[in-house]
Design goal:
TIM Barrel, alpha/beta, 8-stranded parallel beta barrel, single chain, binds flavin mononucleotide, two-stranded antiparallel ribbon, 10 helices
Length: about 270
């Protein structure tokens, strides 16, 4: 494995490799993205975002309903302890770590962010998941339509001193992600993790609208998809569904490194 130095998630540069910019991220898959998953992906990626995890009573109840219809979810008895234990299990791993969190209110987000901060990890606020159960209780994607509530969560997490990411999705009717980006940046977020769906150019809009670190996501699989997102101005790309497939991760790593080298010596 490449030797990498752990980076404190509160430092100004979002880096791995002891100073090289973070370019490749493993994205959360609920019920799957745990410390074992992150360790395996860590062979290839600069950052692994564990979770997502439901933090408060309404989001946990929604997660239970998801499990009842056969979706995988993390539902530990004590979510904060779970976050702490999972991140602690990765303390020897020289990549940036993070935890994707779902909540209907800011208090539990603040607590989870403090745990992340203590591990030098990134709390990632989930404004992305669109399952009915999660939307009905007012978390996940619903937060995109309610920027004030989203910003309350961002502010709560940022106040801990952690470097905060917000995971968003494109193609939500009535939601302009450029505006969302400006709002969450104003509330203290430093990173926006964008599931671009089939709207890849949205990355360029978000890049132009804010100084957030932009992670582009959705169907990042090969040289073509990596180049497309980075050409739109993404700082990094992320891999979700095939993040347990070393062949995909190796191919994406190679594409990302080739792009970075080309940028360094045009
Ligand atoms: C089974 C499954 C679970 C997921 N769980 C989460 C989650 O908990 N939080 C989140 O932000 N995104 C979640 N995602 C979305 C992925 O992180 C990613 O955004 C999406 O799969 C698109 O990227 P990909 O094409 O690389 O898979 C999940 C996706 C899948 C398929």
């Amino acid at each position: 494995m490449r030797e990498r130095k752990r980076t404190d998630a509160t430092t100004p540069e979002l880096c791995s490799d002891g100073g090289a910019p973070m370019r490749l991220v493993a994205a959360s898959l609920s019920g799957q993205s745990d410390a074992v998953w992150a360790r395996a992906a860590g062979e290839y990626v600069d950052c692994a975002i564990l979770g997502g995890i439901a933090l408060d009573a309404p989001s946990r109840e929604a997660a239970r309903r998801l499990v009842a219809r056969d979706r995988e979810e993390f539902l530990p008895a004590r979510p904060l302890e779970f976050v702490d234990d999972q991140l602690a299990a990765l303390s020897d791993l020289a990549i940036v770590t993070g935890f994707n969190v779902r909540s209907t209110s800011p208090g539990p987000v603040r607590e989870a962010a403090a745990v992340c901060r203590d591990h030098g990890a990134i709390p990632e606020i989930n404004a992305h998941c669109r399952q009915d159960e999660l939307r009905e209780v007012g978390c996940g994607e619903t937060l995109l339509r309610d920027t004030d509530r989203l910003c309350e969560q961002v502010r709560a997490a940022s106040e801990t001193g952690a470097r905060v990411s917000v995971k968003v999705r494109a193609e939500v009717p009535g939601v302009a992600l450029a505006e969302t980006a400006r709002a969450v940046e104003g509330a203290g977020a430093r990173i926006i993790h964008v599931d671009a769906m089939d709207s890849e150019p949205v990355i360029r809009e978000i890049r132009g609208a804010s100084d957030l670190f932009v992670i582009a996501n959705n169907e990042v699989r090969d040289r073509e998809s990596v180049r497309e997102y980075l050409a739109y101005g993404a700082d990094a790309v992320s891999v979700g569904r095939p993040s347990d497939d070393p062949r995909v991760l190796a191919r994406v790593r190679k594409a990302v490194d080739a792009w970075t080298e080309r940028e360094a010596s045009p």
